Amino acid sequence: MRPVNAQITKIVEETPATRTYFFDASFKPEPGQFVMVWIRGVDEIPMALSYDNAITVMNVGPATSALFGLGEGDSIGIRGPFGNGFRIKGDNILLVAGGVGAAPLSPLAGKANSKGIKVTTLLGARTKEELVFRERFEAAGKVLVATDDGSIGKHGYVTQLVDEQDDYSQLYCCGPEIMMKKILDKVEPGKAQFSLHRYIKCGIGICGACCVDGLRICKDGPVFTGEVLRKSEFGVYSRNERGEKVKV
Amino acid sequence: MLSLTLTGLKLRNPLILAAGIMGTTGGSLRRIADSGAGAVVTKSLGIEPKSGHPNPSMVEVDCGYLNAMGLPNPSYKNFQQEIDIARAGGVPVIASIFAGCALDFSEIAHGLDADAFELNVSCPHAHGYGSEIGTDPTLVEDITKAVKTATDAPVWVKLTPNVIDITSIGLAAQHGGADAVVAINTVKGMAIDIESGYPILGNRSGGLSGRAIKPVAIKCVYDLYDALDIPVIGVGGISDWKDAVEFIMAGAMAIEVGSAVGNNVNIFKDISSGMEAFLAKKEWTINDIYGMAHRI
């Protein structure tokens, strides 16, 4: 598909570093699916959909910085939704979100809650101000918080909160790769799903630039079970736009 | 039933993964080998690491795909271990290589251990490389000759269709000592976003692959089969066993599959079983259909 034109209808400042961009096009994604967001003349980057018609973005590089320069009424191009999202399993799920990793997990919380599934969220960020979508997760169930600076909740990493939760049917995790690797090493791999991030070029499973070993993040993922990831280079290496290995 | 010897390499079937598809990691090449390919070709490798063009670098259009990746690669110096991982899949691993001159091509071929080399003198969207070289018969002959001197492995030359007469370039490769030619690389193309007027690809224009270019590729293979003594490997828009049979009838000794892998990673098994069933039904061998269109 060619990029669909999407006009920005509303911008919400979620945290000092994170904004949600709503647009006039709706994509009916499965929670965890992503789109390729084209900031014309700049770049095209993969972003999780945080609503049917929105992406939630942290300003981390040239493309997101250009996106932060856009206002309501401006347009972007969108291809997608692509990939495989989270599969809901069981009736008591645990979400583990680090930073802007909350973006793909928040629609999952809403969807699971609407099906009568018990949802518990472990939400982590650097500071109290950087917690993303706390209210959305609270609307879906219980929320436990951890911050790096201890400004709210547990003083430390969200990974430490997982130890106290062991009665879930399935765990869903998205955040920095080091955090996800810690979770993977801690839990039963068959009971956990992870949403991965990689440098993506084509977005449609052809070029192989986003491969973790033989797995295509854009087509086979971005969500994988822990069992699949345990045997891979996930958490050890990623690859940059040149295909060079970079230590995680 | 489908096994063959191609430029000295033993292949269990004539179905090869095309360059630039799932070819960045040893693991992804291995996956394609395990899924039934007869051989795999790596992403094109150059002298130095290269980032490629800004995104969008690939987009689906009505009749195929447009891409302008811009030859992103970690350099051949960082790729031997990926080739070794892929080789554990038990099928030949062909290194696609690109450079701006014969000397650099030679350095890469000398520095890599691969089962064969495919010279990319045909990428349509990288300044100073690819088809900027591959449209000049003298350069193609010189580069082929240089690589043949630098390695004992078979050398395939991948040709661009963006020329008036592809056979003149094919003959140049043959004169340079090429063991085979591969036809075709992508056809120059472009798409423009009508909402904004922006060319969609980050590089503005690129190369067209997929269904749309199959008849173009069939004609190129047909003409090359007539003109050359060395084998022709066909590529361009192959997405099922019927396409593969058509290429072989046009004169391809083997075929490469590219874009169609995106929607079907198991396409190599699908094509080989489809071809086997067809040949059995017709009571033909693969040799019977090789170049068949030229004999009737």
Structural summary, described in words:
The complex is a heterodimer of chains A (248) and B (296). Helices cover 19% and strands 37% of the residues of chain A. Chain A has helices spanning 62-68, 102-114, 134-140, 159-162, 177-186, 226-230, and strands at 4-15, 18-23, 34-39, 43-51, 54-58, 75-82, 92-98, 118-125, 141-147, 154-155, 170-174, 192-195, 211-212, 215-216, 223-225, 237-239, 245-247. The longest helix of chain A has 13 residues, at 102-114. Chain A starts with a strand and ends with a strand. The relative contact order of chain A is 0.14. Chain B has an eight-stranded parallel beta barrel with strand order 3-4-7-8-9-10-13-14, surrounded by eight helices. In chain B, a hairpin with a 2-residue loop joins strand 5 and strand 6 (64-67). Chain B has helices spanning 26-34, 80-87, 102-111, 131-134, 137-150, 166-175, 214-227, 241-250, 267-282, 286-289, 292-295, and strands spanning 4-6, 9-11, 15-17, 39-41, 58-61, 64-67, 93-97, 116-120, 155-159, 180-183, 187-190, 205-209, 232-235, 252-257. Chain B is built from eleven helices and 14 strands. Chain B is α/β, with parallel strands linked by helices and 296 residues long. Chain B has one domain (4-50, 70-187, 209-295): Aldolase class I (TIM Barrel, Alpha-Beta Barrel). The mean pLDDT of chain B is 96. Chain A binds chain B through residues 1-3, 5, 36, 38, 40-45, 75, 77, 79, 201-209, 211-216, 219, 232-233, 239, 241-245, and chain B through 20-28, 30-31, 43, 49-52, 54-61, 65, 67, 69, 72-75, 78, 191, 193, 195-196, 198, 200, 202, 258-259, 261-263, 265.
